[in-house]
């Protein structure tokens, strides 16, 4: 027997729906909870640096520290080829995008399990939780972007018309981060092992993505497989291209775009499926 | 037209126990493998938390839900508040629901009182604007103005709960679902909660309340639902439903205990045969109203002559202490035969709670205890005073007894 739930949402219009066809209402309800989304993001932000001496200066120190390491290892010791772009600019642009991605997938990935207390006690669209993590991450992302623009000013790197495309790449970064984050949050509920895989995934991913080096360093014959396996590669290259006119392969970019859309949409559907049994299996 | 604001039809919820659904990857592979090679996993067991439950609630009704732990009360509330979905059946709710299954859901210890009010308010479904409008009222109600900018981790547990309840109390739903929230906090706080709930009920809103506090249920709810093993056992007038529940869940058989011939307690001279709790109408009962009389009837058999056995009855308070011992002062009967004696305890004598009876039969000269039977039979005394008499107070009143005396105004 199929459970059938009928609810009137209280604003005079009556809704009739059963569990197999409630998508329209689902997103309307999600929108109604936008204030919760802000509240949760605000909480995450406040709590993260609560009682630390430096407060959110840490958000500046963290990318700079990684940048410094990359600068000495890849910039000075290995001397990777970054074309005309000064190495710190090259690495910082990649790092900004990658840090956002890794922040969102690790925090939203464990968010559902962390909020189990809330999920078992009150109803709200659970998607609000992983979404709110993506919002928090934007603060750090914005800080890294400011650092990046300051550094570009320092190196006298001039901006090009490519900059007009930057919002598209920001959007793609957002979409893939949230999509992967939602996938992990739902999967880790079903299989707790996933939680333990994520740190490795992030660590390997950092070196498997053109963050610290240019994708041109990859031998010609591996280029295709490299980009097919890692949609972040195309996105980060595109993001860098929009800022400082590095090289860009449109085919890889388009492929990444399609893949990101698929990841995002499938994540929502999988999450909605798990959401129904969330309170029971937590 | 259909007056029901909540309609529950054949609602069932099945849980699978034994084999965890949220197992590890390894378990999934093992399970897949055993299903491929045709091995069946016999460890799984189904558990019906709710079993074909049916009931309706009308607009403005305050419904009490009672039952033992594990009867399915919380599962029902979780389904109605949409935290989890039913396995089968359906329910219809016509209105905005707020559920309070816990106070302070989502409170974060590092955040200040102010920040937590906004956070908790939005979790409960309010918009930030709504919270802002009610903010001063919430702070007033909670009584923690002075600490509103302090992280709640520095709050005492009482302050914490008060603040959390204050937020919840300012929700404006059409239907309010509450689970045992009254169990937290001190007496004064509970009184405040109940007062607020009476306000809500008075505004014509629909309330579903789960509680083990029968006084609260009795004074707040018009109708009650008694759930046992996920089934609707009784639905109707609160007082009757509570009576039925107390009788049904009582460990003592319906107000009467009869010893089989070979198991009668006692010795060669005298044995106890039967003990009954009898109400005013001559019925055996295991629960009585506080303003009813209680008869305790004892049957015993004297089997040999020679001693002069006398009956004494001990009454045990809910706390376990002996309240009194009453010694048989009726016309003495010492010869062989069956005897029945009844004592009547006046109405308005007991407090509310579970009282039990001990009986001794002894000869005083020479001193012989023929039998001393502890915890023979129990009965519940059920406080049926309306909320007006108690001015809305539904907490317990102290004391082993609550006799009714005549109070007079001295001028």
What does it look like?
The complex is a heterodimer of chains A (282) and B (411). Chain A is an all-alpha fold and 282 residues long. Chain A has two domains: 1-32, no CATH class; 33-281, no CATH class. In chain A, 70% of the residues lie in helices and 2% in strands. Chain A is built from twelve helices and one strand. The longest helix of chain A is centred in the middle third of the chain and has 28 residues, at 87-114. The radius of gyration of chain A is 21 Å and the shape is globular. With 411 residues, chain B is an alpha/beta fold. The termini of chain B are far apart. Chain B has two domains: 4-9 and 54-249, P-loop containing nucleotide triphosphate hydrolases (Rossmann fold, 3-Layer(aba) Sandwich); 256-382, Distorted Sandwich (Coagulation Factor XIII, Chain A, domain 1), CATH 2.70.50. In chain B, 23% of the residues lie in helices and 34% in strands. In chain B, the strands form four sheets. In chain B, strands 5-6-7-3-8-9 form a six-stranded mixed β-sheet, with helices on both faces. A five-stranded mixed β-sheet of chain B has the order 12-18-17-14-15. In chain B, strands 10-11-13-16 form a four-stranded antiparallel β-sheet, with no helix packed on it. The model of chain B has no long low-confidence stretch (mean pLDDT 84). Chain A binds chain B through residues 1-10, 19, 33, 35-36, 38-40, 42-43, 46-47, 50-51, 117-124, 189-194, 276-277, 279-282, and chain B through 15, 21-26, 28, 78, 81-96, 99, 101-102, 105-106, 108, 110-111, 115, 118-119, 122-128, 151, 174. Strand 1 of chain A pairs parallel with strand 4 of chain B, so a sheet runs across the interface.
